[in-house]
Amino acid sequence: MNQHALEQLIQDYSAAARSYGRAILGGCTNKSDTSFDDIETTFGRIKETGKPGLQALSTLLESSDESVRLWASSHLLNYSEFQSAVVLEEICSSPSVLALTAQVTLDRWKQGYITY
Amino acid sequence: MALGWVPGAVEGKIGFKAARLGGKIAGKAGQYAAYYAAGEGVEFAIATGVETGYETLINGRDFGETLLQTSVGNLIGQGVARPLIKGLERGAKVIARSDAAKSILKDAYDYIDNHPLAWPLTGVRFHAVGRGRLHTDGRGTRLNPAFQKGFDSHRELVEYLGPAGKGRAWHHIVEQTPANVARFGARRIHNIANIVNLPHGAGSLHNKISGFYSSRAPGGGRIRDWLATKSFQKQYDFGVQTLGRFYEP
Q1: For a pLDDT cut of 90, what percent of chain B falls above it?
Q2: Is A101 helix (H, G, I), strand (E, B) or coil?
Q3: ipTM confidence score
Q4: Among A21, B4, B85, B199, which one has the highest count of C-beta atoms within 10 angstroms of its own C-beta?
Q5: What is the pLDDT of residue B27?
Q6: Distance between CA A37 and CA A30 in Å, rounded?
Q7: CB B86 within 8 A of CB B46
Q8: Measured between CB atoms, does A43 come within 8 Å of chain B?
Q9: What's the distance, CA B190 to chain centroid?
Q10: Beta B44-49 vs B70-71: how paired, if at all?
Q11: A24 vs B241: CB contact, 8 Å cut-off?
Q12: How far is CA A18 from the centre of its chain?
């Protein structure tokens, strides 16, 4: 995959993650489910590119959007070189409801249920 | 915890602290006094600005934060009740030492007893509905954590509470799923300490909470399914946190 295509995937991932955050805050399960599917599908394609894809995804750990950070950090939890658990822990102290999603994700990860 | 009733004006060193919060409160003697009380470590203070006719209820721990600023005409009611509950939740004793303060507190307590909605909005621990939530003795008024009343079914609970009201719904903090009822018992789930009255309908607080519980988190599972594996207390705390995070004053 060329660089341009990878950048496009990262943009798609970011857009879907933002959409997920908006849907959660608005209480719209249908939209958050759709965004969830988009995020997971796009992550799958990013992961297929190997290390360059994960490296590109890690740039989203510094996104200004909390939902983007939530998803990027969750997807990178099992790749210790990115230390994304720290980002997820930071989100846990946010006043947003996404903090609770981060708490759930960390708890499930510690129990071995996050297998990305 | 200490509590202060601070009548009248305090000038000088605390003036700038109040003034920095904005011109709208500067110059109001009672608010100065309340901020002074807060700065001195008073847990909860009610001050009356006699000269201006304004009252302010101050959360002493969060010095610098105005929890309430309203005219006398709007003072009695949830404007006082919400921050008052916050203080009570944190163990503050509230003592009124003047007739004016006693009158304000009495009305606030009456409001709390008659308006269950005031409870969840503070994002605090106890959400019981009905008289008995507050315990008063010679040392002041506190929440009564022992106050509970359970029922065998949701129908019986609602019969006791009455209708939620138009555009509103009774919301269980720990969800009334069959699994929860089986694990914790019907009387713990269908309990006045586990239920709050919320706005209901498209875009409402109730729907946002329900939507969040139904959402899928990273890894695939729904929030509701994860929560179902937790203890009653964990589910309750999570429910209160969810309420607090979605609530917009």
Answers
A1: 18
A2: helix
A3: 0.95
A4: B85
A5: 33
A6: 11
A7: no
A8: no
A9: 21
A10: unpaired
A11: no
A12: 10
Rounded CA gap, B183 and B15, in Å?
A: 56
Tokens of A74: 């969750």
Q: Among A25, A75, A105, select the one facing B217 at the smallest CB separation.
A: A105
Give the residue among B176, B196, B171, B184 at the shortest CA–CA distance from B233: B184
Q: What does the pLDDT read at residue B168? A: 77
Would you call B209 and A115 a contact, using CB atoms and an 8 Å cutoff? no
3-state helix, strand, coil in chain A (%, to 5): 80, 0, 20
Please indicate if any CB of chain A lies within 8 Å of the CB of B214.
yes
C-alpha angle B106-B97-B34 in degrees, rounded to nearest 5: 90
The verdict on a CB contact (< 8 Å) between B216 and A101 is: no
Instruction: Provide the shortest C-alpha distance from residue B210 to chain A (in Å).
Output: 7
Residues A13, A22: Cα–Cα separation, whole Å: 14
* Nearest-by-Cβ selection for B216 from A36, A70, A75: A36
CA distance B43 to A37: 49
Tell me the C-alpha to C-alpha distance, in Å, between residue B119 and each of A32, B100, B101, B136: 29, 24, 22, 18
**CB of B12 less than 8 A from some CB of A:** no
Measured between beta carbons, the chain A residues lying within 8 angstroms of B241 are: 100
Least confident of A70-74, A93-97, B105-109, B120-124: B120-124
Q: What are the φ and ψ backbone dihedral angles of B52, each rounded to 5 degrees? A: -105, -15
Q: What is the pLDDT of residues B77-88, one digit of tens each?
A: 344 555 555 555
pLDDT tens figures, B50-75? 333 333 444 333 322 232 322 222 33
Residue positions counted in chain B = 249
- CB-nearest to A29 from B214, B218, B219 is B214
For residue B212, the one-letter residue type is: F
Reported for A33-38, long-range contacts at CB under 8 A and 24+ positions apart, including other chains, are A33/B215, A33/B216, A36/B215, A36/B216, A38/A12
Q: Interhelix angle for A66-75 vs A51-58, to 10°?
A: 150
